[in-house]
Amino acid sequence: MGDEKADLDLLRRRMINVVGHELRTPITTLRGLAELLGTTEGDPEATEHLHAAVRRAARRAESLVDDLLVSAGVSTALPVSEPVPTDVVDAARAAWAELEDLPEGLDLELDVPDGLAVLIHKGGLRRALAAVLDNAVRYGALPVVLAAAVEGDSVRVAVRDAGPGIPAADRALAVEPFFRGERAVTAGPGIGMGLALAAALVAHHGGSLVIGEAEGGGAEVALVLPLAPAPP
């Protein structure tokens, strides 16, 4: 009982620290934009440009809070909508488009059958793939390939990179909130939420996240989700 309480206290402290650190950027952005809005009276184009930037910063803050809560296992933060057929290619492209600081002209390599779809709540596959792809770009190496195939009643959507991979000893811990392996720590800043978020989202609809090694080296992170029935 004492160990469990200590673990919960540690998780709570880490979460407070992460929320405070990560929310500082969009909050600072919002404050600066609010001050600038006071200087654009009489310039509708500049005002609309700033309004759009405010909306983006607000969405970033909202998304960050949602992701932190889902990753930390807060059940009320998980979607309550019913699963819907979701096209894998569409979700993958939308997820890739969300990533920041990608080299100009870099495309995601796709190996997915046409029309392949999974069952997950609306937006769930995009969010999960964005987290996994971001992890591959940050801590792996190019190229990043997304491949999907049907396995019985499920679909395996695998993201592979050409980096050093995730050590076997770290794979079970990698889906825990706030965990960062030695390679991730040395690679740069991060909060250890990406794979935890992806795992929570797919598990919510009976799926799973499996970490392994890509053929030829590198990491492979696979999302296994129910296959959507073929349209009538």
What does this structure look like?
The protein folds into two domains: 2-77, Orthogonal Bundle (Helix Hairpins), CATH 1.10.287; 84-226, 2-Layer Sandwich (Heat Shock Protein 90), CATH 3.30.565.10. Helix content is 46%, strand content 17%. The protein has six helices and seven strands. The protein has helices at 2-37, 44-71, 88-98, 124-139, 182-187, 194-203; strands at 84-87, 109-111, 117-120, 145-151, 154-160, 208-213, 219-226. The protein has a five-stranded mixed sheet with strand order 2-4-5-7-6. The radius of gyration is 19 Å and the shape is globular. The mean pLDDT is 81.
Task: Summarize the entry for a quick read.
This protein has helices at 2-37, 44-71, 88-98, 124-139, 182-187, 194-203; strands at residues 84-87, 109-111, 117-120, 145-151, 154-160, 208-213, 219-226.
Order of helices and strands: HHEHEEHEEHHEE
Poorly predicted runs of 5 or more residues: none
CATH topology of the largest domain: Heat Shock Protein 90
Strand order of the largest sheet: 2-4-5-7-6
Structural class: alpha+beta
Query: Number of DSSP strands?
Result: 7
CATH architecture of the largest domain: 2-Layer Sandwich
Q: What overall geometry do the principal axes of the alpha carbons give?
A: globular
Question: Mean of the pLDDT scores?
Answer: 81
Beta-strand proportion? 15-25%
End-to-end Cα distance, whole Å, is 53 Å
Describe the largest sheet: 5 strands, mixed
